[in-house]
Amino acid sequence: MGESGALDFGPAMPTISYALAIPLIAGGLVARYLVVNVALPIFWSPVANIPGPSAPGFWGSNLYGLFNSKISWKLHEEFMQKFGRTFRVFGVAKFDQRLLTLDPVAIGYILRKTSIYQRPWPTKAFISSIIGDSLFSSEGLKHKCQRRIADHAFGERNLQSFLPTIFARASQMTEKWISIVEKSEDGQAKFDVAEWVVRLGLDIIGEVSLGVEINSLREKNNLLHETYTELFNVLLKRQHPLLTFFGIQVPRLQPYIPTEVFATLTRCKAIVHDFGMKLIQEKRRILDSAEKCPHRDFLTLFLKANTHPDVPYEQRMSDKELLDIVNTMLSAGSETTALAILWTLHYLSLHPEVQDRLQEELLTVPTYSPSQVCGEEEMVELYKAIDSLPWLDAIIKETLRLSPSVHSSIRVAMVDDEIPLVKPMVMRDGTTSSTLKVKRGQWIHLPYEACNVDREIWGDDAWEFKPERWNCLPEAVSQLPGAYHHLMSFGAGPRGCIGMKFAHMEMKVVLHQIVSCLSFRAVENLSIIKGTS
Ligand code: HEM
């Protein structure tokens, strides 16, 4: 204390004004980021000794080729032959060095060890900015809790309770198609099956998720169908990468970024939010009241499971979280299954002999008709008969093998780790390594589709559509860790597709219903653009 009683801090401290400090700190952080993430990896990278293709220029990426459906299979094979089953690829530019592995043992290990290998933050941020925070983006305990509740909804008994919806919607679409064909003079009609099957996919998953009819097959201008179509289409639109970066980083900013992409996203998300929240409130009211709630849709099941006495209060989900889970089911479960059905119809149209044999087989099981009074038990019996048809089964597996709805996935290592391999890898310096050593932060691509068409595993005819291969598979196929008959189409491990059995059931019922009554031929000059996700 000085004599005057005022506080004495000794000699005046040098001060920097805020106006100067903020840009200095920001500049320092940017410089550090550039040195660590851009400059250093070009000259020194933990994966430098792993062989791989050269970078096509500083801003060049190997991913364009690997993701381009016209050359994807060929390029994966070419790189694998040159560099082995695990190789280094350049992501967005020369400083972004990633790994890609087609090694079945490595893939199985990565997909099992979910605490070490997680989805990279940009992937999670991107997904959450569109469908909210849910199974796709959550990790650790939060994911476990969400998955436990969701797994319950996909249990055997619940799945069976969805059969009436699937049969009813499949038959509704088939009747529409038959009426289109009947109106034609020669019993043939040309129309866009994709538009219909996408609507069917939404109606089915919407009804089993929410317990209300979506009606997009009936109504041409259906709000939910238009909203999801816009939501998916807007993601294909290009905008400045910096705007995308900020919009994904800070989703709250999206409504204020004046671009068509964010305006559409904001509007679509608001529609889904209002629609879902109203339903949640209504269902909660029914559950809380003395009214008996007969519904077994996902939303009702989640609401019930969430308030079960076994679920600790702190682990319960908020309405927003419940809505995000349902939104995830609608987004992940509609177009994926619709695509798989469409690819099957496409392969049938290209292989009339396969289609004829399928039609013969399908006729051994009666088709469902809405005029028949058919209880749930009878539907379960009918489904069991459809599910046991071997040729239909082989066709579905073969379609999911050649054209899986998900092209590939990606994980990042959260800690340094050693990944086991099917056989030692040869490094750039000629040494061999029996494991793949990775550093924390390493991104690893998992090419699901390329694994399904790997000729070293599936044989020389792996690129051909041959359902008969499923009678006798090569021994090597059993090495693949895929959840669905070793196929990687539904991923694997604790984060494998939760809707796999549901999708399988929907595909079988829908295909049985439509191919029993109609034959498909591809129109002339048909052009299919196969995207990759
Ligand atoms: C033919 C149809 C389908 C295919 C090919 C497919 C494919 C996949 C794949 C490959 C994954 C794993 C992604 C990864 O490893 O990063 C996945 C995850 C997931 N799928 Fe599917 N899916 C289909 C249908 C469905 C359906 C019908 C639903 C829901 C009703 C669904 C919901 C999900 C969810 C929620 C996840 C994330 C699981 C988690 O992270 O815990 N999918 N799907």
UniProtKB/TrEMBL annotation:
Heme binds at C497. Keywords: Heme, Iron, Metal-binding, Monooxygenase, Oxidoreductase. GO terms for molecular function: heme binding; iron ion binding; monooxygenase activity; oxidoreductase activity, acting on paired donors, with incorporation or reduction of molecular oxygen. Its cofactor is heme. It holds the Pfam family p450. Pathway: Secondary metabolite biosynthesis. The keyword RNA-binding does not apply. InterPro entries: Cyt_P450 (IPR001128), Cyt_P450_CS (IPR017972), Cyt_P450_E_grp-I (IPR002401), Cyt_P450_sf (IPR036396), Cytochrome_P450_monoxygenase (IPR050121). The keyword Metal-binding applies. This is Related to Cytochrome P450. It comes from Serendipita indica (strain DSM 11827). The lineage of its organism: Eukaryota, Fungi, Dikarya, Basidiomycota, Agaricomycotina.
